[in-house]
Design a protein that fits this description.
Chain lengths: 489, 432
């Protein structure tokens, strides 16, 4: 039970509402003029020195976006976002020019150090197999640095910022960009397509098992800015890659917008494992401030026997609107979704997944654990569908919600659509509070109430935690502890 | 965006029919005015369509190609085989094409009054209006408004406080064309009674039925509410049940819906007071191009209530089954206990089952769960039966019947249970 004790200690060290990553880095930055029109799109494209086709692609997206209306079907309440009152591009001044670790502004390096993100490549100790993670660090609108690039290159893996990929591997980007999430997919995806500034690009060639974990760390720093990153990951035939994503932002009284798009493509026999630990600033105890997180994530299991697995731990953001999905196009392909969504304070989470079975004998599994505390609202919304011709498909869904306190809400809105008889779909959902019996049992064994709650909660989310890479597991247990602080009793 | 929506053919026909019919329907000028107001509500909203979330899978604008014509009242020689409930000793009231035509000869049951809606609404115009809880969706509101405009008859049943009639009250609705039925059931305090409804049409008739039942259970009342609906190919049966349950009362509905036509059974239940319960089970059987929709909204508005739901759907050919079950637990409704299960068995590769169980929970000290499954017949079970010497046809029938039987068994009245099971069995075997 060491891990659990650790969680509790972590909780104790930190006061209620003390968001650990809430500091701001004082750094000079270049911004696009406030507001959004065609010139903003052109500004961003020019800033990145993009080719003509991408500019046109952005402009087309912008035209589509103008004709769209904001979705309002989610169980979320927030004041209307003024899309003209934002900076769509902000970059630290120092990032212009050659990008090498030694050129990076020490202020930025310090920021990442503070966040606990290793940007200096650790050497392998002789005989010791330490786990190493390659990091792409995105600060506001630009990628600051990408580590272990050379070593990855030796294996044939391309890991860089998407701006760099546009320059270096235009044919790959052009082939896959928007092929999973089209420009006009939804309101926020269209917005992102028009103004996306940076993000990561991964290409794992045929038969290659990526030698290390890849990760991107997103940081919003600048005031009044939105972050619009775009991630594109392609696993060619038989390739494997595991990718982690983390995010934080400073504490501010106003709400900031984050609208990302993530596209995954898995070809025949390929596997992509995508893990997220989302810890954007959730707002203060009164629900003031916090990030509005509107994200479109979708994986396309394009080849047969391909597999995409989403694991997400959602603890931050004032508003979360996010449905990482799998299009199971290939025969025998597999989609997985593991999620822990913890909401506290006045946070609102509307998250879930879509498993769209198009290929024969494709299978999927959904494990979703929602924990609502404080005054928060936590909704699971999901779709499982089997196409008429997708015979022999399987799905198992389990969504459990745990309520802590009587001011919060937990909701489940699943859609299950079986369009042929050979589809085997099972769905189960439960909602309950932590049972008094369980708490009593733990407490009569000498645990305090807080420790007992932490123990039960950790047990509740164990199924999902086990899916996370080792490095993240410990981190996540700590996060869950923090998010629930102050919710007992 | 406010785009004027084109009226569909059936909406236009419905409007024309209604304008013509309203002056001929029962009730004084107050009732008539209320009917006209209700028609205006319907005309403004139109038929429910897929843009209304609760009607996503049952898009009436697309499904109702045209409104059925209103058939003139027919004579009383109806085929009693259509609604036979032998052995239940039920007191049967037969409504043909929206008009009460036969009452049971011995229609006095102690503690029970059954009156016709047409008589009652003439005496009491307020009867036409129904107070709709917030949980009723926009589409259902429109359908109910159309019912208010056109309701010609139905039963007004009052069970006296403390009464426990042994005989079930059986309401039979036979129609060949468009019909709007309105029932009002009030179960008095601490009473226990059984009300059976049968909704059928003569073979080949294109009936379009819009039935609304307004049900109230007073404190401590128990109501067994059994409904059997047949919707043949080419016919449509829409039913709305609006139920209000008071303290300590137990509402126990059972629904058997079958056919190759369109049907939607929608129950909206509100727990108005504590310690009440709902025990709901339903069977839906469809083949051909059948479309069976069971929709349910249970509002746990107060603490200490229990709800149980069990739904079984069997789909053959190109039939489509829909289940939507929403359970709402209000912020103060602590100690709520809700469980729901919806299962579908698909007998043909072209069948489709769409399920949307939904939980909306605002209280923490609750136990709520739902489950839904859909699959074909388990080949292992089939093999097991066959290995025991049961021929395949027989084995399949056995397995399907046991699947359905689990829900039918919830009917407490034995004779009634047997009668309903034999209807289900007959339907299942009629295909083989």
């Amino acid at each position: 039970m060491a891990a659990v004790q650790e969680t509790i200690d972590q909780v104790k060290k930190i006061d209620v509402d003390q968001y650990k990553y809430g500091f701001e880095t004082k750094i000079e930055s270049i911004k696009a003029p406030k507001g959004l029109d065609e010139s903003t799109v052109r500004f961003i494209s020019a800033k990145k020195g993009e080719p003509e086709w991408l500019l046109n692609w952005r402009l087309e997206a912008f035209q589509r976006w103008k004709a769209m209306t904001e979705p309002n079907w989610a169980k979320l309440r927030y004041s209307k976002i003024d899309f003209q009152d934002l900076y769509y591009y902000a970059a630290p001044k120092s990032t212009e020019g050659p990008r090498n670790l030694s050129d990076v502004d020490p202020e930025l390096l310090k920021t990442y150090e503070k966040l606990g993100i290793p940007l200096r490549e650790q050497e392998l100790l002789a005989g010791v197999k330490s786990s190493r993670v390659a990091v792409d660090a995105v600060f506001d609108s630009v990628s600051v640095v990408t580590t272990f690039k050379d070593e990855l290159k030796k294996a044939g893996v391309i890991f860089c910022s998407i701006s760099e990929a546009v320059r270096e591997y235009p044919e790959l980007v052009q082939k896959y960009l928007g092929s999973v999430v089209p420009q006009s997919d939804n309101f926020y995806a269209a917005l992102n397509s028009a103004v996306f500034s940076d993000g990561s690009f991964v290409y794992v060639p045929e038969g290659v098992r990526c030698p290390m974990e890849l990760s991107t760390y997103f940081r919003i720093n600048e005031k009044d800015t939105g972050q619009f990153e775009r991630t594109l990951i392609i696993a060619d035939r038989g390739a494997y890659v595991s990718y982690l994503e983390g995010c934080t932002a400073p504490m501010r009284d106003e709400n900031q917008l984050h609208a990302a798009v993530v596209e995954l493509v898995a070809l025949d026999d390929a596997e992509i494992k995508y893990s997220t630990v989302q810890n954007w600033y959730p707002g203060d105890a009164e629900g003031k401030g916090g990030i509005y997180n509107f994200v479109t994530k979708r994986g396309d299991c394009r080849g047969h026997h391909s597999k995409i697995s989403w694991t997400q731990v959602e603890t931050g953001s004032a508003i979360t609107w996010k449905y990482p999905s799998c299009i199971l196009r290939g025969d025998h392909s597999r989609g997985e979704f593991y999620s822990i969504a913890v909401s506290n304070g006045y946070q609102q989470v509307d998250s879930g997944t879509k498993m769209i079975h198009l290929g024969k004998n494709s299978s999927s599994r959904i494990i979703s654990k929602g924990i609502a505390a404080g005054y928060s609202q936590n909704t699971y919304r999901g779709l499982v569908s089997a196409h008429r011709k997708a015979t022999g498909v399987r799905n198992f869904t389990n969504c459990d919600s745990l309520l802590i306190g009587d001011k919060c809400g937990a909701h489940t809105v699943p859609y299950i659509e079986a369009k042929n008889s050979s589809a085997h779909f099972e769905h189960e959902a439960t909602t309950s509070k932590i049972s008094d019996d369980m708490l009593f049992y733990c407490m009569q064994r000498g645990l305090s109430q807080e420790e007992a709650v932490a123990l039960v909660v950790n047990g509740f989310v164990r199924d999902v935690l086990q899916q996370l890479p080792m490095e993240f597991m410990a981190e996540t247990q700590k996060l869950i502890g923090i998010s629930l602080e102050g919710s007992v009793g | 965006m406010n785009v004027a929506v084109m009226k569909t053919k059936s909406e236009q026909t419905l409007s024309l029919q209604a304008a013509e019919r309203i002056p001929t329907l029962p009730g004084d000028k107050d009732v008539r005015r209320a009917r006209e107001a209700a028609l205006a509500v319907f005309e403004a909203a139109g038929l429910p369509h897929r843009r209304i979330e609760e009607w996503k899978y049952t898009d009436l604008r697309a499904l109702l190609k045209d409104a059925a014509s209103v058939t003139p009242q027919r004579s009383s020689d109806v085929d009693s085989k259509l609604f036979d409930l032998t052995g239940t000793k039920a007191a049967t009231y037969v409504f043909v094409d929206g008009r009460l035509i036969t009452k049971p000869k011995d229609h006095t049951i102690a503690g029970v009054t059954v009156a016709s809606f047409s008589d009652e609404v003439s005496k009491n115009p307020a009867l036409l209006a129904i107070e709709l809880p917030e949980t009723v969706d926009a589409g259902a509101r429109s359908v109910i408004a159309l019912n208010s405009a056109l309701a010609s008859d139905g039963a007004v049943i009052t069970i006296a406080a403390g009464a426990a009639p042994e005989r079930p009250i059986h309401l039979v609705f036979i129609a060949s064309g468009a019909v709007a039925v309105r029932n009002v059931i009030v179960a008095g305090a601490d009473s226990e009674s059984t009300v059976v409804e049968t909704h059928v049409s003569p073979t080949g008739a294109a009936r379009q039925e819009n039935a609304v039942s307004d049900v109230t259970l007073a404190r401590g009342a128990t109501l067994h509410h059994v409904v059997r609906t047949e919707a043949h190919e080419g016919s449509a049966a829409l039913a709305q049940y609006l139920v209000r349950v008071c303290a300590g009362a137990h509402y126990k509905p059972f629904q058997l819906t079958s056919g190759g036509g369109l049907s939607r059974q929608q129950l909206t239940l509100t727990f108005a007071e504590q310690h009440a319960s709902l025990d709901f089970s339903a069977v839906a059987l469809a083949r051909g191009a059948g479309h069976v929709d069971t929709t349910l909204v249970v509002d746990h508005a107060v603490p200490h209530c229990t709800s149980r739901e069990l739904f079984k759907t069997v789909l053959d050919d190109r039939a489509r089954g829909i289940f939507q079950g929403k359970v709402i637990v209000a912020p103060n409704a602590q100690k709520t206990d809700g469980k729901q299960m919806a299962q579908a068995l698909m007998l043909s590769p072209d069948a489709e089952f769409d399920s949307k169980p939904e939980l909306e929970i605002y209280a923490d000290d609750v136990v709520c769960g739902h489950g839904t499954t859909s699959a074909e017949l388990d080949p292992d079970l089939l093999f097991y039966c066959e290995s025991r010497g049961i021929p395949e046809v027989e084995a399949r029938a056995l397995l399907i019947e046991s699947f359905v039987g689990e829900a039918v068994e919830k009917i407490e009245n034995e004779a009634l249970r047997d009668a309903l099971m034999s209807y289900a069995t007959a339907w299942l075997r009629s295909a083989a």
